[in-house]
């Protein structure tokens, strides 16, 4: 699968992870706070036996990590995304040990035109991990409107 680590809207590349008020700023599209997650198309998640809130293991030739699954219906089915900004091993009490660092999966390939790290170059595979995720989300609704809208239509 294709892998795309992207800068968090609140934490960017992680420089703001030591500020609790930025950790509490909900992600615009997922409403996740105080951590990060694996964004996946619901059809792809279903093919891997994953539901929203499960823990997925993302594996590349350079490492692996585990994070909570969040459905993102607008994504390509062959794409996995994880926001950057978390996964610090230090950096103060608000950043230390929180979430995962998606850059730990990225290979050492450089883009020849820009000279920057080619973050979209690394391919990953996905596995279901044990247990339920611990992602804090702003809206913890008892139902999943996306899943309910597709039930009975053969899309899940």
Would you kindly provide a written description of the structure presented here, covering whatever features stand out?
There is one protein chain. With 156 residues, the protein is mainly beta. It has 3 helices and 8 strands. The protein has a 6-stranded mixed sheet. It has a two-stranded antiparallel sheet with strand order 2-8. Strand 4 (54-60) and strand 5 form a beta hairpin. It is globular, with a radius of gyration of 16 Å. The two termini are 20 Å apart. The relative contact order is 0.27.
Q: Can you give me a brief rundown of this structure?
A:
The protein is mainly β and 156 residues long. Helices cover 10% and strands 27% of the residues.
Low-confidence spans: none
Tally of helical runs? 3
Overall pLDDT metric: 85
User: Radius of gyration, Cα only, in angstroms?
Assistant: 16 Å
Major sheet details: 6 strands, mixed
Derived structural class: mainly beta
* C-alpha termini separation: 20 Å
Shape: globular
Strand order of the largest sheet: 1-6-3-5-4-7
What amount of the residues lies in strands? 25-35%
Q: Which sequence of SSEs, written as H and E, runs from N to C?
A: EHEEHEEEEEH
Q: Got a strand count?
A: 8
Instruction: State the helical fraction.
Output: 10-25%
């Amino acid at each position: 699968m294709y892998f795309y680590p992207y800068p968090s809207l609140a934490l960017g590349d992680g420089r703001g992870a030591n500020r609790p008020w930025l950790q509490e700023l909900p992600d615009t599209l997922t409403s996740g706070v105080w951590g990060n997650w694996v964004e996946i198309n619901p059809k792809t998640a279903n093919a891997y036996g994953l539901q929203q809130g499960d823990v997925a293991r993302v594996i590349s030739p350079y490492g692996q990590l585990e994070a909570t699954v969040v459905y993102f219906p607008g994504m390509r089915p062959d794409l996995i995304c994880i926001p950057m900004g978390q996964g610090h091993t230090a950096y103060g009490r608000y950043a230390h040990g929180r979430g995962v660092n998606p850059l730990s999966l990225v290979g050492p390939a450089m883009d020849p035109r820009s000279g920057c790290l080619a973050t979209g170059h690394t391919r990953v595979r996905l596995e279901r991990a044990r247990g339920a995720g611990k992602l804090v989300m702003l809206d913890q609704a008892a139902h999943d409107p996306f899943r309910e809208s597709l039930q009975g239509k053969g899309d899940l």
